[in-house]
Records
---
Amino acid sequence: MGGNGIICAEGEKWREQRKFVTGNLRSFGMVRYGKKKSKIESDIKKGLEELRRSLERSSGAVDTEHMLMHVLGNVVFDLVFGKTWEENDETWKRLLSYQEEGTKLIGVAGPINFLPFLRYMTGSSRFLPKYGKILRYVREGIEDTHRIYRKILDEYRESEPEDEPSHFLGAFEREMRRRSADPGNYTLVQFNFLMADLWGAGVDTTMTTLRWFFLFMAKHRHFQEEVQKEIDQVAGGGELALSDMPNLPYLQACISETQRIRSVTPLGFPHGALQNAFLAGYRIPKGSMVVPLQWAVHMNPVHHPDPETFNPNRFIGEDGKYKKMEAFIPFQTGKRVCLGEEFAKMLLFLFGGGVLQRFSLTVDDHVSVDGDVGITLTPKPHKINFIARG
């Protein structure tokens, strides 16, 4: 990515773009209270309602991957670009296809990500022919995606840009205008890669977590029923709200246990050593890539007894409230912690709880809870029965 965007950026560029993203997240409503947060909650609920209508219309068991990709993709796309799409829009289908396939293929090309010199061998080496094809597909997808982004940007500029934008495209475009004489890092290239990072990372990890959550709830009916009982007591016949979160510790615990037992990013985001260092007797030279192994933290029996067992009670304290755990890092760790953590928690809570409020979930006993590893750890193809609750 040439050090563009935010995921692959480093140094001063990364610090500046991180400040841009965090500052705008706060201004968009990622705070505890306020009208803007209420708007975000309302937008999430619109996506939830579309998902529930799709589930109600379905007959028999359902593979939720494409449903979730559409509704979650739209919620996140609206925050990033200020735009939503109809499900059958051809451009939207292309964007979703690039996101789904690109995530899988980049994961397959893992050796190239961690041994960068291999990318120069893919054209001629008999040992690496498939990686060359993968990289070509990814590059073509990136180019087409960026053309779409630029078209959306042009359409926004032809309208009357907001003084106080409610999405990242508007905020970035405002900075481009402000810095027209000396753009610095606010260029069209940076725009393309930053928007891709914000949308792609936000959609894939949340969608994958929800797919795992629904699968584990279907596999463990007694835990599912405890969550539904809790939701019924708190919400009654009304809709769940973000303000209900403190009163739904078991729902929070089941989401957290899903994130623990199936870390969607088992390998964390790469960090870099700024200087020579020693850790536990090992020398880490300046410039080394340092990758936190999230899977090892979450499956460590010292911190999580019987780690292979799905047990949300480990996140419930003696007082019956949700218990935070130190050895639990679903949103990464260090300076490169996920900047959209608050937004992701909103999505998981409202979508996860909102589906269980309306449906009981069942799945065939033979369905596996093993995963496939790409950039993310995804469930193997499966179908779940969503049975409307009386």
---
Amino acid sequence: MIKKYFAALSATALIGVAPYALAASSTDLTVTGLITPNACTPSLSNGGMVDVGKVQVKDLSPTRYTTVGSQPMQLTVACDAPTPFAINAIDNKAGTSASDLYFGLGLTSNNEKIGYFTPLIQSALADGQPAHSIRSIDNGASWTRIYQIIKNSLTSTSVVGTLIPIAVKDLTVELMVQTVIARADSLTLTDDVAFDGSATFEMKYL
């Protein structure tokens, strides 16, 4: 499987050998993949940057989460030819989100989770035609309709009313990036607190 992505991604593994176990005299290693002539390039308007600016502590609710910014952004994917693909959204601030589904904004100096941001999906056009956004949490085995991009899952495109990924050459998705701060009584806010969320949208060919 060929992937195109913006940020480095690493994986590690541990192989353990149990003592006294009888081992087979041989084992197989199989490598499979696909070389495709078609490539897709994702891009975000405004360089993918959202600047919420200064947020006053007095504007934060002490008892509930507060939305402090909503900024429109356009996601486009341009392919050499119609290609079935999905976007794997990776949280570059993993472990800091105040939500299990959305992207982290970092931690305070006391290791408190500041909040999260989420790209809400407003509309999608696949090769000029209205389309739906669908999500898979089982690596493409099944899909459900979605209205936001969620971390650690695949987001793809389907014909309106269906749940089957389609091949697309040019995709345009209108997003609204919503930034949310955790309840003020869960944060230490005696000094300035900077927050900086980051996500990588990785192409995965289906």
